[in-house]
Write a structure and sequence with these properties.
The protein is of the alpha/beta class. It has 2 domains: about 90 residues, Rossmann fold (3-Layer(aba) Sandwich); about 120 residues, Rossmann fold (3-Layer(aba) Sandwich). It has 11 helices and 10 strands. The strands form 3 sheets. A 5-stranded parallel sheet has the order 5-4-6-7-10. The longest helix has 23 residues. The radius of gyration is 19 Å and the shape is globular. The structure holds NADP nicotinamide-adenine-dinucleotide phosphate (NAP). The site of NADP nicotinamide-adenine-dinucleotide phosphate has 23 residues, from helix 11.
Length: about 290
């Protein structure tokens, strides 16, 4: 392949710039700015960093954002009320609930997500938006899988007939990817902690997508020669960000690979902005 390093940051910068121009045109026409509300419960430092990055990128693209910061001792009912207030606020077009929630609230995560009005669900997590994906409608689908597909398409990596192996079955990564990949005629295998002989699956993948959150989980003996490696994992060790792939070890053997940082991460944020713009257009009903 001509480009061995799949540069997510460059693609994200390009998309964000194009979006900024598009938003500018809409705001001139309508006088209404897109607005994202981010709900942050508690004081998890990693979550604060992620929310700040998202808000910074929003500002650069011309999307207003508000931070609804809530105490970690908040009750279920109070959090549901906060979500409802944002659902009813006509100036807010997108809502994200930063996960993970503090322990006390965590087991009710689905209940909170289900409360977000589907038209404002820019993380693609509500049952309606997940169901739409079942019918290959990706309009308000999860941001990370959208970013991965955009990256593969940008580098002209054809998915038709390819054996794609995903190591992850979460709602935000593995599950949405299944439908997006099937839509593009790939043959999809999903692995997780109960998968038998996982290394056999990894070694036959034309495209391997890994999101386990374990640094150096993938080394060269685990991949097929010429495979394309998409590293989604993000772990912080002593303040430094690591993916799931031993990049230097794998580089020689693979056909293409995403770096960390600068791979999937910036695209996740870029597609949050894209989804916010989609939600905005749907709500102001001007296209
Ligand atoms: N770059 C980005 O923008 C971005 C976005 C989202 C997530 N991430 C990163 O991606 C990783 C996963 O995130 P998540 O929210 O999906 O986490 P999650 O819900 O904990 O999912 C982790 C998945 O990996 C599987 N897994 C874990 N250890 C494994 C092992 N040893 N062998 C096989 N499968 C294993 C789990 O299997 P079980 O289902 O059996 O437990 C689960 O399906 C994290 O590092 C996260 O930070 C990055």
């Amino acid at each position: 392949m001509e480009n061995k390093i799949l540069n997510g940051r460059n693609l994200a910068d390009k998309l964000n710039l194009e979006l900024k121009e598009e938003i500018n045109k809409f705001v001139k026409k309508t006088g209404i700015k897109p607005k994202l509300a981010a709900i942050l419960v508690g004081e998890d430092p990693a979550s604060e960093v992620y929310v700040n990055i998202k808000r910074k990128k929003c500002a650069e693209a011309g999307i207003e954002s508000i931070l609804v910061k809530l105490d970690k001792e908040i009750s279920n009912e109070e959090l549901l009320n906060e979500i409802d207030k944002l659902n009813k606020d006509k100036t807010v077009h997108g809502i994200i609930l930063q996960l993970p929630l503090p322990n006390k609230l965590r087991e009710s995560t689905n209940e909170f997500i289900e409360k977000i009005f589907p038209l404002k669900d820019v993380d693609g997590s509500s049952p309606i938006n997940k169901g739409m994906l079942f019918d290959y409608n990706e309009e308000l689908a999860a941001c990370t899988p959208k970013g991965i597909i955009a990256l593969l398409e940008y580098y002209n990596i054809d998915l038709k007939g390819k054996d794609v192996v995903i190591i992850n079955r979460s709602n935000l990564v593995g599950k949405p990817l299944i439908f997006m990949l099937l839509k593009r005629n790939a043959t999809v295998t999903v692995c997780h902690t109960s998968t038998k002989n996982i290394e056999e699956h990894m070694r036959r993948a034309d495209i391997l997508i890994v999101a386990v959150g374990i640094p150096n989980f993938i080394t060269q003996e685990k991949i097929k020669k010429g495979a394309i490696i998409i590293d989604v994992g993000q772990s912080r060790v002593e303040g430094k960000l690591f993916g799931d792939v031993d990049f230097d070890d794998v580089l020689e053997r693979c056909a293409a690979i995403t770096p960390t940082p600068g791979g999937v991460g910036p695209l996740t944020v870029a597609f949050l902005l894209q989804n916010t713009f989609i939600a905005y257009k749907k709500q102001i009903k001007i296209y």
